[in-house]
Design a protein that fits this description.
This protein is of the alpha/beta class. 46% of the residues lie in helices and 12% in strands. The chain has twelve helices and eight strands. Strands 1-2-3-4-5-6-7-8 form an eight-stranded parallel barrel, surrounded by six helices. The longest helix has 17 residues. The chain starts with 5 loop residues before the first strand and ends in a 6-residue tail after the last helix.
Amino acid sequence: MNFGRLSTAMVTPFDEHGDIDYTALTRLINHLISTGTESIVVAGTTGESPTLSHEEKISLFRHTVQTVNGRVPVIAGTGSNDTRASLALSLEAEKTGIDAVMLVTPYYNKPSQEGMYQHFRTIAEGINTPVMLYNIPGRSAAGMTPETIVRLSHVRNICSIKEASGDLEAAAYILQHAPQDFTLYSGDDSLTLPLLSVGATGVVSVSAHVAGESMQDMIQSFFNGQPVYAASRHRDLLPLMKSMFAAPSPTPVKAALEMRGIISGDVRLPMVRLNAEEEALLRQVVEPAASFYVG
């Protein structure tokens, strides 16, 4: 499964009543594709999945697939800490026409490595869709070891991982020992270039919502044999990347999208909008960043 170099973990737009704004969602999808996004993750953490109902997730998958209309792959966030529920949601997601599913490390219940292996294998073997694993110990309170990821990489349809542990040695181990066609994506915007240098394919990005062209420029420059220029672009983007997590995500990126007139900055509780001081600080980064955009 080819997810491209730049995948975006898409936010879920809400209206003033807290309902999904499908008109804004269509506008956002078209914006992402036009600015360099090569695959879209729907209803992931950045999409506020913990506050989305089962029915809302299916509706989001269906609307995104219809709007994308084959232009880029659509990856459905169907992972949870309940194996049966994740499998059931994955099976329903397949019926909407999604191209792959993303399965996050089980959170809160802190399973063992064997438990995680059995969790992911059970879901993957129960569906026909390609699977991207998502390792993010900072949010889930438990992470997969590189050895467990390599073990899972031999399951028939587990083809990729979004690696957000921040451990470059672990990433190198995975790439060294997994099958050659198993791909690794950075789960942290700021580690995109370092991870590309050890063999990663690309990034599942938050910053791409507002800097997709620049992210693509950095990535393509690296692969085109221009590492010095790519490093310069990386440094240019770091303040913006950092600002996207200056408050609990996805609050900052939604505020940045609102500044650009793409969607509302509304979030669902327990997330709250940025306060005036936080918004002013974000604006100081987002507006100058426009000078770095390509095209």
